[in-house]
Queue: 2 jobs
Job 1
Amino acid sequence: MPNLTAEQEALRASIKKSAIIWGVVLGVIIAGLAYWLLGSQGSGIRSGGAALAGLVSAGMITRKNLSSGAAGAKCANCGAAFSVARVDRQEVLVNTTPKEERKVLDNGDTEITTWVEEVYDVDDTYKCSSCGDTTHKTYQTTRRKDEETVVKSAGKKGADAGKGNSHDKGKSAGKN
Ligand SMILES: [Zn+2]
């Protein structure tokens, strides 16, 4: 890579670092999986195969992340490599909606989950450190706030139970 500025070098290093971390983490997971899959083999083949699978996939994942990270950091305006990074994020709350979800549990109790769903307009600003060109990426994101879960016991027939249609064990009544 010819003549990168300190800023570009720093961005390149951080892209490389996260690519390697992801490669190693996923490589270890795949090695573990391979070790498990080779369960019937001798221990030499087992650990050798697992190490090989982990290394190969770590290498591939790192390479793939590196190239996609590099592509994302390349300036569309001036073509400089490793020059575009996010410099700002603005979030505007556009909508709040109270939500409720009821789920009947196995024992007949009702689990009631309530939350406030917030919708944000997000505006990310990306800036090129070479030519100063700024671009924006806008999208919406939703978040849950004040989530609360209560369980309403079915056994406790409260005041609002209302009409006492007692069907305690009445399910088998029809067929005889
Ligand atoms: Zn640029």
Job 2
Amino acid sequence: MNRSTPLAWGREADVGTSMHDPKRSDESRTRRREAPTQGEICGDAERGEESKDKERRGGLRTGSTLQMKSASANSNIYAAMAAPPTAFENHLERWIFRHRIESVVSVEFRPKDSDLVLERLLFLSDVDVPEGSPEYHQMDDDSRASMLSTGVVAGENEQQVFVLTCAHSLKQVYNLHHPIDVADLADLYAPWIMCDHRELMFLARQDNERVSIEANISRLDIPNDLLLIEVNKANFTAYCNRPHPPVIFSSEFPSRFATVVMLSWPLRRHRTAVRGNISHSQRNIDDLAEENPEGLATVLSEVDITSDKGSSGAPLFDGLGKGIGLLYGGDGKFSYVIPTHVIRQCLLNWGWQYHG
Ligand SMILES: [Zn+2]
């Protein structure tokens, strides 16, 4: 592993990438028309999964139909060959995608008070930063920036819906020697949640702009890099009345070679769906990176899939559709995941009553 490669996928949103910025939205739409993303392909943007399944049951695909018309003499042969079942159709992966994508959300952490954030950045700086210096201007920019991650709906009660994501998206305001408590972090940033349904509405031009909903930082565990967000349930229902079923995290981590699916939402690329295999169940952070500035204390599981900035917090699923981890980061060849037993223990510590 290249130790000079950053491991954690913290993503800083470009200044001005507010979800309500119409200029950026137009650019995004243009780009999408030119080049559909992997997620759109996996998400069956052109045809629904149901219709494809019906075609398979009917035994013919569109291309095969045309072929038969020009070869009627051999129609029985073509009919027999028309729709061979293959190992490449990935029924299980697509089932997981269909049943879990509604639980995946985009999280944008917006500064509540950039002056407070700047004050914190100056406090954490190792060196004196004079006002007006280039370093000061850089910090001033950083204090206004939004941070992005992927989140997953992990629970709910009568009043709240809970979204789980990684903490290190906000690592610029804490470090090993100066950790931050949840109340102070909640004073600095507000998480804004966008769900898959509203992104689809935006892409279908039913929404004129990307619409997200404000939530609150609820719990924080820096050593395990986990952050819990609570969304008022009534507000969430008013924002989107479609289902966002909580993901159950498995009591068992898959063995090596097991296939897993990751659903992530890097910047403007929702529905990014990838499949990979477990290559190691627990690596120590000391074996992965020379430095550990945030004081990560959890083991990380290794998966042979690639990942991108803004994907931190993306859920990984086993073949039963249960959560088995959240993406921490990657080195370009492998991705590293906070494993399910760490997540479950953390939720228990937060008072979660976990069944299943
Ligand atoms: Zn929704």
